[in-house]
Amino acid sequence: MRTTVPIRTAILTVVGLAGAVMIGLVIAMQHVKERRDTIDGNVRQAESLADIVTEMDIAFLEARRAEKDFLLRLEDQYIDRHAAALSDLFDDADQLHGLLQSDGGMTELLPQLETATAKMQAYQDRFAALVASNRRLGLDEESGLQGELRRAVHEVETALNAIGMPEMQVKMLMMRRHEKDFIMRGDPKYLDRLTARVEEFQAFPASYYTSATQRREIDELLTTYQQAFTMFVEERLAEGAVREELSRLYEETEPLLRTLHESAIANAATTLEAGTAATLRTQAAAMASAAAGIALFLFLAVALSMVISRPLRAIQIALEKMRAGDFSSRIAGSRIAETAAIGAAVERFRQELASKASLDQSISEVIRACAEGNFSKRLPEPEEGSGATELVHGVNAIGAAAEKGLGDIRNVLDALADGDLTVTMAKGQKGVFEEISRSIDGLVANLTDTVQQLSDSCGMLNATATEITAASGAVSRRSQNSAASLEESAAALQMLTEQVKETARSAQGAEQSLGTARTRANETRSVAESALEAIKRIEDSSASISRITGLIDDVAFQTNLLALNAGVEAARAGEAGRGFAIVAQEVRGLAQRATDAASEINSVIKSSNAHVSEGVELVSASSASLKAIQETVEQFVEQVSYISTTSEEQSSNVHQINTAVGAIDKDVQQNAAALHDMETVSHKLRVEADMLVGVVGKFRLPGHGAQTAMHMAAE
Known about the structure:
mainly alpha; transmembrane; 87% helix; transmembrane helix; HBM; Methane Monooxygenase Hydroxylase, Chain G, domain 1; 715 residues
């Protein structure tokens, strides 16, 4: 319930609030002064933070410069400078950390400072690793791995100078070149190249060395040099990685310090700006406080008059609207008790008139909705004590009856649209809806019988198409198998035809060959008689060859003596006659081979004489055999002529059979193609039957539970 106050109490309250405002202005001015002093202290602290961050940035730059100087000159003094710069840097970081913790407005910079401090610590550690790596490499040419490498290469070069082989020295110079290339470029590929040169050096032949001991000593020196260079390369690459990491840490830390510096400067500027603004606000508050007091009293006086007059004006306007039929304006409450009582009475009168107007409007809307086909709209329940209760209940009962009947009709029609024939009109319909219910149930029953019959026909059609498809496939496969077998038989018969033809041609060729053989047999008999006479002449020539071989023996003997004398003279001549001794030895060997050849020829001639005698007897016997062969060939020619004639007749018969089988094969292939087409058509018939079953299966029939027409048709 809204609280109201009398007019007198309201006036006293306004006066008290004005006094409280004046007191609040005095307190606010004192607070502004204290805030200004605080801002001045914050400005001084922010400027101090900016100075510390600047010193940190300078110290970090000095450390970076000491790092570069050390890498350029490799002197210990730059290590000390680097350590001093980092010491100042960490002292400034600790001081800055304490200031940030004490300043509540700058605590958001603490994570950045801690991150920068961690990276600076990592930078210090990696610089120590860089110094250690350079000490291992050697700060000058005589220390560290650099000194070991220098001493190893000098030992190898001294040993090679003692040998004086240019090829070995050139190979060593190539190794030194790879060494210098790595020092200049830092590319690890030169390690592989030096290893390859070492392997080439070790492949030099033993003739380059004075002894095996010298070769072993040089190989050991070369191995020492190779190992020193390998260690130098590995350490140099590791040192390069540390350099890159140092650069990365510096590049990551420097932006953090710059961000801290910018944040500190921005904070100082913001703090100064806030102080200036506070001063201006204090002056403005002092100038406005007097005017605010006068304005407050004027405002309260005007507000009090409006609080009294506005509700009364609103009541007047509401009464005029109700007289015109507009009951939408609510009477606003008032804090003044007298005005609030008048407004409450007018508001109750407005609500009663608005309730009657609302009921009339609701009845009009329900009637309009029913005219548009919407029977779901209802009248709200009237308030107790009103005379419209019976009217409201009657209108709502008419709408409910119409909505139920039309809803049942819509349910049946929706089920029919989804193919469900199990849904019927609900019982208990009255009036015109009872007649509509009987008509719809009759329609559903007739449609159910039609779909049932169509489902049975689809099942029979599907089964028949399946049987036709299976039978067509089996016949088609058997036809294809028969066609394949007949095709193989035709191919075999064709091959048999070719073989018979080839046999006939071979028989004709054999007949010709036998004619040629008969002619050759006659010629061979004449040649055998001529050969007999030639062998006798060979026997006479063998005696002449024996005399010639005797002469060759004498020549070989004389040549052997001359070669022996030449060897003796060459031996007397010493080193100058060495070539003649070799020639004499070769001549002696040639004479010996000539003697051996003459002996072999004599043996062959003796054997040939025996063979010639034997050949005369054999030629005589072969002449008689050739005569017998000639008579046998004559008989064989007659038999082959008979075989050739018979083969030609068989070839003609087989060719006729092959032609007939080819015609049968063509007919079988055409039958197989026709059966394949029939199988394709039956398959299409099966697909169409399945589609029809699917269409019918969308209907759900009564009396089968969840079983659909599609399942029934499939069965």
